[in-house]
């Protein structure tokens, strides 16, 4: 009853201030009451002594071109935000696989789990194995770019091409920001609200310009904070923040052997742990207009497309430019 009362009060307060959309509602840890744009399937995983369910969407084209694309979501998102991308890819003949990583979206939220990019890559491969897909084009956004990089390094024979859309992990955050324990990260996550999430997205994603099409992706994570399940979500968010901080992929870009495209919104300033870095170092973090060029030089033969005055989510903020760039690389 306490959770329900708190949720109602939070909704009344935020709706009264005009801060969140009227449709926001409490969402449980598995988003059971939230409908994804395409049918959701599950595989079962026995992992680290946990019985887990991993969700994914499998969008099939009416007329196949014989190719498969796998779309990997970021940390503050889930597979649902690929709706438009998947629809347009399917219209071009691609089969599209969209996982929710363990700890995210509709997938299990284990408490005792050692999150690693290698583990997430192995879990992702399990979906392809279940579907008997031998080769795929991999697109990763934000944290999904780190997963995509590790997946490509571990299973290069399964990757036809790699696309990194404003990936995090283009720099080693440990060289800037101090460490925080998982317990500290958890306490920080518990403080999240619709307001803190929106302020973060405005600052790092959208250059303080909010549009209606951004709201659904805020409503999803804000809805979690209003539900009694939120501690489960916050705990896994703390574990995955620790994974991002402690498991950089930037030193291994030189080992990528598949054709690679970097789609970089140059206004992006996302950087993990920026608030824990010394004041003089904070302005040096998340400089995507520099990091994109640096990463292109490190990945053999990589192609770089910079989207000027675009933030962290090109496929939301400037979708036509994003899709044109993507399709030109994979067609």
Automatic annotation (TrEMBL):
Q: Could you cite one Gene Ontology molecular function of this protein?
A: hydrolase activity
Q: Which residues form the signal peptide?
A: 1-22
Give the classification, highest ranks.
Bacteria, Pseudomonadati, Bacteroidota, Flavobacteriia, Flavobacteriales
UniProt keyword list: Hydrolase, Signal
Q: What is this protein called?
A: Alpha/beta hydrolase
Q: Describe the location of the AB hydrolase-1 domain by residue ranges.
A: 68-316
Q: Name one Pfam family in it.
A: Abhydrolase_1
Known SUPFAM superfamilies for this protein? alpha/beta-Hydrolases
InterPro entries per UniProt: AB_hydrolase_1, AB_hydrolase_fold, AB_hydrolase_sf, Epox_hydrolase-like
């Amino acid at each position: 009853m306490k959770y329900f009362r708190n949720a109602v009060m939070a909704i009344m307060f935020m709706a009264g201030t005009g801060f969140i959309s009227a449709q926001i509602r409490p969402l449980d840890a598995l988003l059971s009451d939230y409908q994804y744009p395409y049918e959701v399937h599950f595989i079962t995983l026995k992992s680290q002594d946990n019985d887990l369910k991993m969700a994914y969407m499998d969008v099939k084209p009416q007329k196949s071109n014989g190719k498969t694309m796998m779309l990997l979501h970021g940390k503050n998102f889930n597979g649902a935000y690929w709706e438009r991308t998947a629809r347009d890819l399917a219209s071009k003949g691609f089969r599209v696989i969209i996982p929710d990583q363990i700890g995210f979206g509709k997938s299990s939220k284990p408490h005792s789990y050692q999150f690693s990019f290698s583990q997430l890559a192995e879990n992702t491969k399990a979906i392809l194995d279940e579907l008997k897909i031998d080769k795929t084009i991999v697109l990763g956004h934000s944290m999904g770019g780190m997963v995509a990089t590790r997946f490509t390094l571990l299973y290069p024979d399964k990757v036809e091409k790699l696309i990194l859309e404003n990936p995090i992990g283009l720099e080693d955050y440990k060289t800037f920001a101090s460490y925080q324990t998982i317990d500290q990260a958890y306490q920080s996550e518990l403080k999240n609200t619709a307001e803190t999430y929106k302020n973060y997205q405005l600052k790092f994603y959208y250059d303080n310009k909010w549009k209606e099409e951004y709201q659904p992706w805020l409503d999803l994570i804000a809805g979690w904070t209003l539900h009694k399940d939120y501690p489960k979500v916050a705990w896994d968010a703390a574990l995955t923040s620790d994974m991002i901080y402690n498991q950089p992929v930037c030193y291994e870009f030189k080992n990528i052997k598949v054709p690679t495209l970097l789609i970089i919104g140059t206004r992006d300033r996302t950087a993990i742990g920026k608030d824990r870095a010394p004041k003089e170092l904070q302005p040096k973090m998340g400089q995507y207009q520099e990091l994109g060029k640096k990463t292109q030089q490190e990945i053999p033969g990589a192609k770089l497309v910079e989207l000027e005055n675009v933030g962290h989510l090109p496929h939301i903020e400037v979708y036509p430019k994003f899709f044109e760039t993507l399709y030109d690389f994979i067609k």
